[in-house]
Amino acid sequence: MSEITAEQVAHLANLARIDLSSEEIARLTTELGQIVDSVAKVAEVATPDVPATSHPMPLTNVFRADTVVPSLTVEQALSGAPDRDGDKFRVPAILDEE
Amino acid sequence: MTNVIKLSAADLSGLLVERSISSVEVTQAHLDQIAAVDTGVHAFLHVAGEAALAAAARVDARRAAGEVLGPLAGVPIAIKDVLATIDMPSTAGSKILEGWIPPYDATVVRRVRDAGLILLGKTNMDEFAMGSSTEFSAYGPTHNPWDYDRIPGGSGGGSAAAVSSFEAPLALGSDTGGSIRQPAAVTGSVGVKPTYGGVSRYGSIALASSLDQVGPVTRTVLDAALLHDVIGGHDPLDSTSLTDTWPSMAAAARAGLADGALTGVRVGVIKELSGDGFQAGVAQRFTETLTLLSAAGAEIVEISAPSFEYAIAAYYLILPAEASSNLARFDSVRFGIRVNPEDGPLTSERVMAATRDAGFGPEVKRRIILGTYALSAGYYDAYYGSAQKVRTLIQRDFDAAFSKVDVLVSPSAPTTAFKFGEKMADPMAMYLNDVTTIPANLAGVPGMSLPMGLAPEDGLPVGLQIMAPAKMDARLYSFGAAVEALLEASWGHTLLSRAPELARREMFAGTATSTAFTSTEGAV
Amino acid sequence: MKKAELMDYDKALELFEPVLGFEVHVELNTKTKMFCGCANEFGQGANTNTCPTCLGLPGGLPQVNAKAIESSIRLGLALGCEIAEYSRFARKNYFYPDTAKNFQTSQYDEPIAFNGQLTIELESGRLVTVDIERAHMEDDAGKLTHVGGATGRIQGADYSLVDYNRGGVPLVEIVTQMIEGGEADSPEIGRTYVAAIREIVKALGVSNARMEEGNVRCDANVSLRPRGSNVLGTRTETKNVNSLRSVERAVRYEIQRQAALLHAGGTITQETRHWHEDTGITSAGRPKSDADDYRYFPEPDLVPVAPSREWVEELRATLPEPPAARRKRLQAEWGFANLEFQDVVNSDLLDVVEATIAAGAAAQAARKWWTGEVARLANASGVSADSLVQPAQVAALIELVVAGTLTDRLARQVLEGVIGGEGTPLEVVESRGLAVVSDDGALIAAIDEALAAQPDVLAKIRDGKVQAAGAVIGAVMKAMRGQADAARVRELVLERAGAAE
Ligand SMILES: [Zn+2]
């Protein structure tokens, strides 16, 4: 059985920036446990000799020329903003520095 | 005149080109049908009646002026709400994007407009395309036109229901693990997931970047091919877009109608995607179809794909992992809703977390948490890393199979449309529903679903899935068109002609006009 | 920690061995951003250079800038790195309002360049080889402005404003291996290393390299190891130290601070620290925590970068002479004394002096004009000397002085005219009527002759012993048969002595 704990789910929710309620955390702990149990079987066949595939089509070196293309207008850029101040997006005070 | 809305896009195209019907008339007829039945079906989240009629009038004027337009110019189309449209809200079925109107068009939307198609509106979907039933749409489920108590499939249930209820002849969908093919199967329509990289993803609100593909949702194979020709081809804005020159899919579909098109075609039946776990009527229709194919000269070959057993597990690691990162941008800063926490200080961090809690539905949260887990330190190798190895194994299985056969077939879905609520409580049961469609996404190969009959036990549509090697989309259309013709000849009619007549909404029944319709714009 | 509580620097070094590491971010000067076609430039107003991709709008997708790849490879080569045959972008996931996608598109375990070396020369002549672990590509974040609160800083702000013009600008992050054995030179190593990086990216032309504008930003890692121990100490990472002098000061401060703390029995917290230019101290920032789980994974929206060996060799052929080698060569060619040469280098005038000499000016004259009058005028108007006037104009001006058309005094006026946009030096001479009168011409010829005849006197005058000029003045008056104003002769003698080679 899976070892997923409520603390772990709370930590994941914090990483994912979702303010889950304690009921949500409890429910997700159970569900996540079940899901993880069933998806963990990938490890059975993922032996070291098998290379990983990240893209279905193996392309490399897809580049764009360094040529300026028109940007959005400032009004378009800010058209969906929940809050703005002049031509900038406005966000509540930031607690953590990066 | 025949009922315009029952015509295929190819037939409409013929009438429009010879100008025996106008695009305004065609568009109006579909808007009337939407007004009449969408209260029950709920395929649309937004209907752009006035804009559609204006665009139709422009196409008519251009044709009247003697301009030669593309084959689908003037034909209406419904757009899955996962695609960015500059003039319509684009919510991806999520509360967090309620009312958001993007400042740009997705590449496929731009191509569809440039080809003169008429955008009717945006179709419903599971939130961020996570689901197989549209029950996870924040705006309420779409109902299956064959039985309103049943799901229309998902995530693109809205697009599939729109074409199968004759609200639109064409629709765009997106397919990450079956979101085009499974809805097509359970609604009796046709859906194609192109080769990964064959159609641009730019402007498609990403679920899982390495799995998502945009594709056509229609009622006939030829219509799907015509639409594929419009949306396909290289797009420099999508770095995973293939630069290949593609053959005409419409020509390929027409070639499939030639006599003897099935003679000598090697058809692989995947052992792991047949037999146990399939509803009896689904298995029965599949076996019957194989018999028909064989009689038509095709060679049926049993193929084993041992790694497919691990496909669902790999998929439900890769998808949540990529999705957890793709959905991080929904943070209430640049677009979308903002929700303040109920109490405590208003900080950026807390407002983001409160917004994401209120704006995302339960399935989205479940997958974000799962994906965050799969990527987190100490688990990456066991989960995400292993899943990507399984992806290699599945590609190898496909390579081996396609060295022996030309196409692979399976039922598109294990069951016919299930009832609302049946699988809501059990996420794993819902996930298992994608067993047939997921391998194609993991390997990037193209897949199609087309109707292969009704299950005797419930009278609901059953879909046949066809898969071809990567970049061989044209083969899907040739083979698909041939199978479609074969099946319809055996039935003596199209499958959708057996769909129930939908109840028409009282207030508009028989009197739906553009004026009456316009009043409901955006509120459908 | 207050300055008074710091441990004395020499004592700190007696007790501890400093171990350093640097992460330098270089902003590339491509025309467009890293992953979209928006202009990579600032100054036209907030959020003017944004698109669905760099704003992180739903559906936006990245496209890699070829020039940024080329610049990164060239930079890697200039740092002596190997260039990866196969390299990938990865997503570094974390939430922050200046990061539009809430992940940074960076490189993780597959950087474009790795295993490099850079040898730097300290003022003492000591050579230090810094091992470069990697140079990887990534995109920059937008700019936050914190509003309200007392300081305009993040702490205590009422709200913040975001401008995404800088979001998505291409960066190369250069990460060193641990630098051990720096000892008392450690702060100077920091300064000299960052200066060397700056010089290299400038020589390559891949960055504007202006530290004051954030084109080159340094994070300095410092830890202390007690003498006799082989266990590494806990390190701190001082962020965004944005001038050469600050790098030196910040490293020195951290050595003294950590030494005091450790000596008093305390422990060092692994944390990021902030450098305060005004007070010269660092302050604690965010401690490392498990919230730093960035969940890196390969960017699925981009395909791998696999530069062919042919391309790499083509780019290697475009590399300029390494700045350190170039400096050595130029100093020898020009015959500058160490101090003279340092003056040119430190004032960032090497390129223009070189160009002026290439345009025909004598080396000393070129140096004197650039570090003297041009620098003075640039200083006065708060701009850089090289933006004030073209090297060709300075060379033309020097030519007029050498020809005797202008005295130094007049030449300074002409320079002002040139800077003021009045034209070439010759045009300014004509339009302002500034040429030396013909009498002066004859006088100057006589003075130059007299100076040349008495090199010992010339040397004395140059040493500042102006009374020695008397001997020359006498000779000139004699040559002019008394037909000259002695005061004017004296003035010109001093001037010519200064101007002479
Ligand atoms: Zn941009």
UniProtKB/TrEMBL annotation, chain B:
InterPro entries: Amidase, Amidase_CS, Amidase_dom, AS_sf, GatA. Keywords: ATP-binding, Ligase, Nucleotide-binding, Protein biosynthesis. The keyword Ligase applies. Pfam families: Amidase. GO terms for molecular function: glutaminyl-tRNA synthase (glutamine-hydrolyzing) activity. Its EC number is 6.3.5.7. Residues 25-476 form the Amidase domain. It catalyses: L-glutamyl-tRNA(Gln) + L-glutamine + ATP + H2O = L-glutaminyl-tRNA(Gln) + L-glutamate + ADP + phosphate + H(+). The active site is at K80 (charge relay system), S155 (charge relay system), S179 (acyl-ester intermediate). Heterotrimer of A, B and C subunits. Belongs to the amidase family. GatA subfamily. Allows the formation of correctly charged Gln-tRNA(Gln) through the transamidation of misacylated Glu-tRNA(Gln) in organisms which lack glutaminyl-tRNA synthetase. The reaction takes place in the presence of glutamine and ATP through an activated gamma-phospho-Glu-tRNA(Gln). This is Glutamyl-tRNA(Gln) amidotransferase subunit A. It comes from Cryobacterium sandaracinum.
TrEMBL record, chain C:
Pfam families: GatB_N, GatB_Yqey. Residues 351-497 form the Asn/Gln amidotransferase domain. It catalyses: L-aspartyl-tRNA(Asn) + L-glutamine + ATP + H2O = L-asparaginyl-tRNA(Asn) + L-glutamate + ADP + phosphate + 2 H(+); L-glutamyl-tRNA(Gln) + L-glutamine + ATP + H2O = L-glutaminyl-tRNA(Gln) + L-glutamate + ADP + phosphate + H(+). It comes from the Bacteria. Its EC number is 6.3.5.-. Keywords: ATP-binding, Ligase, Nucleotide-binding, Protein biosynthesis. SMART domains: GatB_Yqey. It is an enzyme of class 6 (ligase). Allows the formation of correctly charged Asn-tRNA(Asn) or Gln-tRNA(Gln) through the transamidation of misacylated Asp-tRNA(Asn) or Glu-tRNA(Gln) in organisms which lack either or both of asparaginyl-tRNA or glutaminyl-tRNA synthetases. The reaction takes place in the presence of glutamine and ATP through an activated phospho-Asp-tRNA(Asn) or phospho-Glu-tRNA(Gln). Heterotrimer of A, B and C subunits. Belongs to the GatB/GatE family. GatB subfamily. This is Aspartyl/glutamyl-tRNA(Asn/Gln) amidotransferase subunit B. It comes from Cryobacterium sandaracinum. The gene is gatB.
